[in-house]
TrEMBL record:
Residues 25-109, 248-365 form the Ig-like domain. InterPro entries: FAM187A/B (IPR039311), Ig-like_dom (IPR007110), Ig-like_dom_sf (IPR036179), Ig-like_fold (IPR013783), Ig_sub (IPR003599), Ig_sub2 (IPR003598), Immunoglobulin_dom (IPR013151). GO terms for cellular component: membrane. This is Ig-like domain-containing protein. It is a single-pass type I membrane protein. It is found in: Membrane. PANTHER family: FAM187, IG-LIKE DOMAIN-CONTAINING PROTEIN. Keywords: Glycoprotein, Membrane, Signal, Transmembrane, Transmembrane helix. The chain crosses the membrane at residues 382-405.
Length: 431
């Protein structure tokens, strides 16, 4: 997210990252946007940190996910700019002042004359009703792990064990399950001015999201608008009013989770001197550095920053050059010098770097987590649970046998039971 000034109003642009992690078409259909009522909404019709291409575009709004084309957004055209609530900037950014509940929905931008709905610049915008939407927990990666273990993991465990009528229906009839996670924004600028070398800081937001997982192998026609929305949605904000209206039980658990701000050490040149910025990549350090932790079989697209189609770009993996057109089924550099990692395995882990001319432009470290490793840890954990249950059950069973044996003299024999039956005496049995 970046800052934009529209006339006298400054707001935060909501834009999509070009180098975002895509695990499935559905998960990449839109970005969630959290906004408080009466705030200003700004949506970009271009990728973050890129300029508009000046082609004719328009914004559309829909209240239904994935079903047909929405209606064109109606812009205000009054003479006095302060009287306009919904406007379109010269960069095709959509601005909505004094946002209300009637403005919520799916917004998307597409070029005039294009076929179908473009999902490159789609945003699901909803009002945040949670008090915790303005609260944050900040720290490094270790702090985030503590935050995850103390705030997110317990909620996910409760969601797994929840057996209310509504959640049971969604799980068994629609194959829908819910999981709380963090959606990471991009890194902000490095704040290193007037600080010792290496003591600068940069930040990025970890937005709280409720992922909607659909494990259905066959499509099932929804019975109402609620089921239609949930079956087409991939995620919603934890404090979303829409989530509260659709699934109150999940909302009550998720809305108490604050956002997380990850802070990291960094070093950069203070000021706006372009020559100094240029010289960053001339030294031994790369101008941009990123780290990705991917699950096995995930996909990732990486574009070398500050480059064009005419730039001389070289990609390297662990120091070895990856030539344009190289393809080993998992790693590909296309004709536009974009790096593609598809269906990744642990073999694709490594240090990927790109050079623009003789400048060290970007360093990307990629780590891959095996599915088998995750499953093995879960299996070992559940084996421990099973061993505890079996030992407790066996102990109770043996104790019962000992007690029964010691009290055997109090039990009636078969002959005594027959005699009582002949006398008309009845006994109540437990089985």
């Amino acid at each position: 997210m970046i800052k934009l000034t529209v006339s006298q109003t400054t707001g935060t642009i909501n834009c999509r990252e070009r180098n975002r992690l895509v695990t499935s078409p559905k998960s990449d259909a839109y970005d969630c946007v959290d906004i408080k009522e009466r705030d200003t909404l700004i949506l970009a019709c271009h990728f973050c940190n890129e300029n508009d291409d000046d082609s004719a575009k328009n914004w559309y709004k829909s209240d239904r996910l994935g079903l047909g084309q929405g209606k064109e957004v109606v812009y205000d055209m009054k003479n006095e700019e302060k009287d306009n609530r919904v406007i379109l900037t010269t960069d095709h950014d959509l601005v909505v002042y004094n946002f209300t509940e009637n403005d919520t929905g799916l917004y998307y931008c597409k070029r005039y004359g294009s076929e179908g709905i473009s999902d490159k610049f789609s945003f699901l915008v909803d009002i945040i009703i949670s008090q915790n939407s303005s609260e944050y927990v900040s720290g490094n990666v270790s702090k985030w792990k503590d935050y995850h273990d103390s705030k997110i993991h317990p909620i996910n465990e409760q969601l797994k064990k929840a057996n209310s009528k509504e959640l049971a229906y969604l799980k068994h009839s629609l194959n829908l399950t819910f999981e709380v996670t963090n959606h990471w924004g991009s890194w902000g600028e490095c704040d290193a001015c007037f600080k010792p070398q290496g003591e600068g800081t940069r930040k990025k937001f970890g937005y709280c999201r409720v992922k909607i997982l659909n494990k259905a192998k066959q499509y099932r026609k929804p019975k109402n608008k609620k089921e239609e929305f949930l079956m087409n949605a991939s995620e919603m904000g934890c404090g979303s009013k829409k989530l509260m209206d659709l699934i109150p039980e999940v909302s009550l658990l998720a809305k108490i989770i604050p956002y997380f701000i990850q802070e990291d050490k960094c070093d950069t040149v203070c000021g706006k001197d372009k020559l100094k910025q240029f010289l960053i990549g001339k030294g031994t350090q790369f101008k941009y550095r990123k780290t990705y932790v991917l699950q096995q079989d995930a996909h990732l697209i990486i574009v070398c920053p500050e480059s064009s189609i005419d730039s001389s770009i070289v990609w390297r993996r662990n120091g070895k050059v990856i030539k344009t057109g190289y393809n080993d089924d998992h790693v590909l550099v296309d004709s536009f010098n974009s790096l593609y990692l598809t269906d990744v395995t642990p073999d694709q882990e490594g240090n990927y770097t790109c050079y623009v001319g003789d400048m060290r432009m970007q360093q990307v470290k990629v780590f891959v987590v095996k599915k088998s490793q995750i499953l093995t840890k879960a299996f070992v954990r559940y084996l421990g649970y099973l061993a505890f249950i079996l030992s407790l059950t066996l102990s109770c069973y043996c104790a019962g046998l000992v007690i029964t044996f010691n009290r055997r003299r109090y039990f009636l024999t078969f002959q005594e039971l027959k005699q009582d039956e002949a006398r008309g005496i009845k006994h109540n049995f437990l089985f």
